[in-house]
């Protein structure tokens, strides 16, 4: 049987040394393609490439929430898998402002506390809103405006899954008031009053 | 050669009567799947299934533009093709308000006039804005906030292409102020003032 | 502005009542296609279609673990999203036997306790094994043999994500010893001894 | 251990009775979608659904070849797999006329005899032609004009693989001369002489 | 609120500097993959990458038409979008000869004039032919032989959309008579007469 | 007409020299991406890139079978095509041990002899087993445990097709007993006896 195995291993090796198919750990030093990053050389892969180690509550921002994202950028074994995940913790009264994720569905798996989460459909322009707690999961469909509020007592925590190896985030206020987009254009295209736009441009540090 | 053709036709026919592969005209009376609609029976297909006949400037809305969309809903031969198109005409001074298309890139092919079009990237939060005219095409990437203004003299017209058989449209004002989404939630998640929200709820007929 | 909104809503409605694009909640009463289930009628969709409510630790099986799966079968809003998730709890000493998931990568997000998880690559026939705890995530690539053991003190819990709306599970012992696959075939194709096969056929209730 | 297996089987069964993922045998009585046919009910599936039994040389046509195609139409377990196959036998001197396969790459695996096969690239308008025999495989890229000739001694046979569950076939002569396409249009769009078009319309039974 | 924005921007920036997801402008100096070109560095992207500026009627060829194609080769922001477009102008009496596009559906959006366009299905070998004018769109399904004739008075113009970032074009006459494909092979595989083949080889400059 | 062709060729060439779309021969010296290898430069492509020349029965291994695989690794024109193929020959009494292919359906096209082939479904844990001979094809669905035995008289031969440009192979015995996976883990996760594991570790040269 010794020779059997030897021959068999040889057979296998002739078909496996060039292009491993089992996985494709991202080589982040090379430009990505529309289908993802090129794979790093398989000979350099160890078990640690498959393990992410800092998936813990982060430091709160001024909105009273923290968001620790494991995406292909810091967890390269997600390359080509089509999803990523984040640890989300929000203090009592905290708010996740209205935003969209380009090309990513979002799923919130509640761990503790109470969260009022919602999205607005584009087909029927309906607000779908629900307060969820431990044991609940909510789906927020791709690309639609959505938000979350910790309306309960104490902290709320969740694991959040995105159907993209790296979800883009577009926050309404940051996009409209946090850059050099001309105030006159903002006003004309949003019907917001001049004073309102100026106030938020001030708060979000957009230039005029 | 008569018999040749006869035999050959027979050979072909045995492989083609069950599932035509050339096209899949949507049968809109049946529920769609994530990959599109089921195909209508090939025996009922005529050349008119491949032709859309009302692709003309429509009636202007109050924003001074018209938008005639040929999507899988009214042009079923787009089923499975991955794109749709619209005839877009906008009067001098007209505004296409800030909006997103879920899961569809947009390309504007200018036919006449001048249009200032722009989008805001989510990665770098940069406003990409350009005034375009006949002979110009602009790409507005999938899911990002974008807008257009006819800032020139006279009417502007364009053919617009979407990378979806039916682009969803989410307008900022309609989504936030045109439904029953609670005003308090709108205020908390957008940082807009109470008075501003009430004013726009009134204009866009949202309930309080 | 009243009329504006009215006209605008009319424009939108003419393009949205036939085939909503925002989501496709599975209609489980109709046969699925290779791309997923047909969508249920949008008029019947409520926020509860987006919420899963029983995502809690289940009853332990004899291996001392419980596994509560939210897949397209019991959470139809996952239709077309490309992933599903499970709540996994395993007592001290519990074992998840050697198995594969057809066509699904698996990601384990640790919540508490210690788990030794591992998989065997097919390219290099290497065992990748790691003991993980809270704050760790491990990727187990698609289709490869893998396992987990609670080797720590006390219970271990995790959220598990699969890159499929419904992961198939093929357990080594159940597949080989829990059905009517002929014992002689099992022996010849696995090199296991006759007595070993008979013993496991007895334990897993396979016929001879 | 008896109870173990019982509990385990129960766990598995609760997640598997609605939508089997292992395979999707086409239900040919229902309209296909762009992603393939709906699946037939799993309870009706037997091993015979996975076996095709008439993959043998067929009756020669006037071109001196036979072609036995196993496509999703007569082998429903190919549904969703992305390929199909044909047994191809061609007598000495036989010709497979110039044709294309819409949306399918073709691979010829030679079994016996000699075949001169070729295709014309569209990028560089180059004829790629090679005479192949047993032990040779040739790739004919998707959508390009190609042909084959048995230029050797005796019969040639091959297994042919297509990257589609059902390859469409468009033969140059049948498409141009075997239907009611107006002769004047054929002449103008092909630069063929009137007499040549009339002659081939006669041979391929096209109307004038 | 100043610190709010600062913290928020910081949070965002940590997840966005490595791999922008918003778009993937082709880096044409690097080899493409089956899914498209690698992305150029986001720091070098400006609004001009999203704008194509020479989309105007070109110089007529001898067939009396011009065709200005915006594909990924000269408009790199189309990379990964799945479509491209062309400005098409054809003089009275002009002919677009019989041809196919490998792997690309074509949609003609008429701007002015009258065009008789048609394709031949492979399933039923039917000629689908229609004369279209301004306000009409026609779909020509992927891979099938098709043609167009300006049969009206005056020039005809159109925007043409392809479901590929770069449509290959295979013209019947150029493919068969414009290269070194052996005349004997052409005759045997097309059933065209020797004199006809020689004549067209002469016109299209093919070698014998 | 001379000038015609010249102008026409010029038109074509301006759209084709950068990124050929007809094919994408793998450049195996560059790292692959999740969608396949980058394409080698088109100017270096010849007809020999499309031809595989050593597709012949190989040398038998100790299990009495040979397996000659044409995958993207040694036949780079398969890049992006989604399938690969193997010549399979097995002597009387030969056994293909229990194994899986990650992410590849397998189709066996019998050429001669008799083969008992089977797979075990994961949904219903059913063994689907059939003895097949010349003129039969069997589908073995993606990722499931399967096996084959030459139970007939004399040699059996087949062409085997995989729905992957390079099928990974995971053999039960090699994966469990042919590497450094800890024996205690093997025993706990497979329920095999200690003595059985030690015996097979010896035969398959796994370390303890």
TrEMBL record, chains A, B, C, D, E, F:
Keywords: Apoplast, Disulfide bond, Glycoprotein, Manganese, Metal-binding, Receptor, Secreted, Signal
Protein localization: Secreted, Extracellular space, Apoplast
Any Gene Ontology CC annotation: apoplast
GO molecular-function terms, A-Z: manganese ion binding
Keyword Transcription regulation: no
Protein name, as recorded: Germin-like protein
Organism: Lupinus angustifolius
InterPro entries the record matches: Cupin_1, Germin, RmlC-like_jellyroll, RmlC_Cupin_sf
Family: Belongs to the germin family.
Stretches assigned to the Cupin type-1 domain: 53-198
Residue sites binding Mn(2+) per the record: 99, 101, 106, 146
SMART domains the UniProt entry points to: Cupin_1
């Amino acid at each position: 049987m010794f020779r059997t195995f030897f021959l068999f291993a040889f057979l296998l090796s002739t078909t496996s040394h060039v292009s491993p198919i089992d996985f494709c750990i991202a080589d982040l030093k090379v430009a990505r393609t529309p289908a993802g990053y090129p794979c790093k050389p398989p000979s350099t892969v160890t078990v640690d490439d498959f393990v992410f180690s800092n998936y813990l509550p982060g430091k709160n921002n001024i909105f009273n929430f923290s968001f620790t994202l494991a995406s292909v950028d810091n967890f390269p074994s997600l390359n080509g898998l089509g999803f990523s995940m984040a640890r989300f913790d929000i203090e009592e009264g905290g708010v996740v402002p209205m935003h969209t994720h380009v090309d990513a569905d979002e799923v919130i798996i509640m761990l503790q506390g109470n969260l009022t989460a919602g999205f607005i459909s584009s087909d029927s322009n309906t607000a779908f809103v629900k307060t969820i707690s431990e044991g609940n999961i909510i789906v927020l469909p791709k690309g639609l405006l959505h938000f979350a509020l910790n309306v309960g007592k104490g902290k709320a925590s969740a694991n959040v899954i995105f159907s993209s190896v790296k979800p883009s985030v577009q926050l309404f206020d940051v996009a409209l008031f946090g850059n050099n987009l001309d105030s006159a254009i903002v006003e004309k295209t949003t019907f917001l009053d001049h004073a309102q736009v100026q106030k938020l441009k001030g708060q979000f540090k957009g230039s005029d």
